[in-house]
Amino acid sequence: MSAPRHVIRDRIDSFPTHQIDGYGVRPGHALPFGATFVPGGVNFSVYSRGAEAVSLVLFRRGERDPMAELPFPDEFRVGGVWSMTVFDLEYEDVEYGYRIQGPAQPRVGDRFDATKILADPYARSMSGRAVWGVEPDWDDQYMYRSRLTFDDFDWEGDQPVRIPVEDLVVYELHVRGFTRDPSSGVDQPGTYAGLAEKIPYLKALGVNCVELMPVFEFDEFENGRLNPETGERLYNYWGYSTVGFFAPKAGYAATGRFGMQCDEFKNLVKQLHAADIAVVLDVVFNHTAEGNEHGPTIHFRGLDNRTYYMLTAEGYYYNFSGTGNTFNCNNPVVRDFVLSCLRYWAGEYHIDGFRFDLASILDRGPDGAPLTNPPLPEALAYDPLLKDCLLIAEAWDAGGLYEVGNFSNSRHWSEWNGKYRDTLRRFLKGDQGTVGELATRMVGSPDLYRHRGALASVNFVTAHDGFTLADLFSFNDKHNEANGEGNRDGGNDNNSWNCGAEGPTDDQDVLALRARQQRNALLLLLLSQGIPMLLAGDEVGRTQLGNNNGYCHDGPLSWFDWNLVDRNTDLLRFVRNCIAFRAAHPMLRARRQPCGDYVACAQSSDVSWHGSRAYQPDWSPTSRLLAMMRTGQGPDGEPEFVYVAANAHWEGHAVELPALPDGHRWHLFADTSAASPDDVSFPGREPLLDDDSSATVPGRASVVLVGRRPENRD
């Protein structure tokens, strides 16, 4: 009897057509790459242009030996893509990889090895490092196992926060280090969940964007070793060596041992968004964890070495990353991989932006030469799915390609402004010939970004790579002995100054000067035009004891000491008020750099420069005093004036103040030489200046005034 007409049959492609090693399979879908759920099964698709044969290797979770190995029939291949749908898998209990057969001819770039089981570069979850710091089984034939992931998280209506870029205050932090210290007081220290508990602190500080150091799956044991002096275990702590580009780091999840790292990370993003805090990921597409020809074979090398890496004519690896290999970003296949990865994080994880480590490599062609019009940065800038994402380039690489100001012509790209960092450091140190350049940096670096606007500049004084702010004014030289590399690692061009004593001291004069210098740096940073970025812990004086390359330390040296929040409340209050002041004055956040245009309501130009005398700046090489007045229209339609005087000289200077329109008076917002609480006011509550015609800027200090009508307190 025929089936009733109202019965709907299962889809025709939900039935196997072949049996391989006990599993029903059928020809798969070539796209998308990776493992995706389809009716009744899982579609596996992998690209390997030079492969002669491909097998899918299946494991039960946690077992060392495979439970099945399924060769792809040749008719399952389309071009260089091998795809197969496998039915009746136990989704939550299966791990998978690939075995590729092909030529092993290193001199022409082929490094196929059928003895290796390869991870899926598109795997959305990985096992093998599920709990941070737990020693793995070094004899395991398959160290980094690909897993299946259900995309069933309930976002409860969450969307990327879409904070206007001009309003961002970025806070760079390490997920584990932010709460790992026992002083954090969180339930799950060192995890995504632990970070979520600290959202009220971030909110109170006033930052509205966190830039997370790498959270893509990496191996903390890579290059692991013991400190020869102390016996301390040294790790790949920072994580700038990616294993799984689509997979969140399981060892950062309290639930990682249960395979729930994806949901835990999504929950962190959702909670940050609920607090109106954007999430930017630090991504590493300049190299991978496979290293040079002596490194491990994890995925790309065994899948298609010639496609994924820049190779010399002899088949060796170009090393523009300083880590052994260089990702071949402008190969069309690799370009598609990068785009697919970022689209996935933007779409599936609601990520608000990406910071690209050593991004100048994205501008290099397959032979390593810089390209005039590199396709990948342009593709990222105009990708429809990434339209609202912030894109930030670290516009240099380890091969000497320095492109600050020249990374891209697109307004969609911003850059870590290394020239801002170096100029501000040199000025505060007291170097000659820095006043003119500091003036340029503080108004959005128009020499670098006039055609792209001030928001192309991400301004910073410190970042994870280098001294903390406290150490910048406590050490003349790096002290990286604890890294076990003879103090040879880390940069030597720090532009730091110890203020009179190297390292810890009881000298109260030195300590007071260091505190003043930290306030100078933070104040000028937060009043500069562009996107400001703070390093986590600088707001409370965190130190790394002079270590400017803490990449290998998972311990108190690199962790956020939450005792500092109570110990350094004065500095924390100063930073909070400076962030609030920036938010209160739109002209400091303008997209366009000021260029002297007349502001009618204020009867003044949008920027003017001053010295000891009003409107008479001293640009000479020996000058160490810079004064600037910014003018604009406030939110209430009233004119507003902000006067900044920065004195890097060891002697104080009297300055003549520019006259204000009738009815307006100068009020004191900040004086970094004053003791707390007189060093800074809450915005809108600044006390009236006694004398509107002049002020004194003490030695090594900065003063900020705001011009407005006095409040009627009668």
Automatic annotation (TrEMBL):
The keyword rRNA-binding does not apply. Gene3D superfamilies: Glycosidases, Golgi alpha-mannosidase II, Immunoglobulins. Residues 675-714 are annotated as: Disordered. Residues 172-582 form the Glycosyl hydrolase family 13 catalytic domain. It is an enzyme of class 3 (hydrolase). It comes from the Bacteria. One of its GO terms (molecular function) is limit dextrin alpha-1,6-maltotetraose-hydrolase activity. CDD domains: AmyAc_Glg_debranch, E_set_GDE_N. PANTHER family: GLYCOGEN DEBRANCHING ENZYME (PTHR43002). This is Glycogen debranching protein GlgX. It comes from Kutzneria chonburiensis.
